[in-house]
Amino acid sequence: MPDILHKVGIKSSSLDEVYKALTTCEGLAGWWTNDTKGEPGKVGGIVQFRFGAGGFDMEVVRLQPTNYVLWKVIDGPEEWIGTRISWELKEDGEYIIVLMKHMDWKEPVEFMHHCSTKWAIFLMSMKSLLETGKGAPNPYDVKIDNWN
Amino acid sequence: MPDILHKVGIKSSSLDEVYKALTTCEGLAGWWTNDTKGEPGKVGGIVQFRFGAGGFDMEVVRLQPTNYVLWKVIDGPEEWIGTRISWELKEDGEYIIVLMKHMDWKEPVEFMHHCSTKWAIFLMSMKSLLETGKGAPNPYDVKIDNWN
What we know:
homodimer, alpha+beta
């Protein structure tokens, strides 16, 4: 099954700060969508990410402070349900490296192309949040195409 | 074998203009790397894309004006050799939609994560070139991590 893969390197940060950007509502709201609710810091916790009308509900499947986060999509667009999103963090010199995988898509449909490019935009938003204090979460996100 | 997928939608453009951005050295130099040489507009043509010390040589495998372009990587980093890159163009309302696939990677290595995010950056550069007249090709490209 096809996966979406991405990588960014974040300067002037720490493993702890990047991990918090993935495991607190405040952190997630700073780079992905400002409408983030739930319990991202607890295994088994549910997180609601909302974008205008739609959005995603994730279950936190695994947390390994401060190196690994795994979510499973339990509600949202049909193509996303059952997919998993992993975040691997590591230090490399002056960078915190973020390796992201959005796994288990059933088919490489046009929506998967869209989501892949859009994930890159949001990872750059996370990088900006941590490096400068200012991300570009929904609804302030960079638009890429006819679907947003 | 895993693929990289991306999509952008370009406003204020035409199929012909986007196709030219993929099949002329001037077009490619405007969004990917300013050091682009060769024959991107001819089936069987070789194109040299250079980024500082390294780069990629592509063979143009298929051209279907103004909807489809297929390249095969014949020289460059080991992970890229033998991979193929396709570009599908279509109109959707006020947008020209670009669907890109970088196919046939052997393994989902860290370099593939890097290249996936970097492709998104370059597709946004192509969108910017066509919408505003100004792209951000190498060496003016947005940096994403410790590898560039």
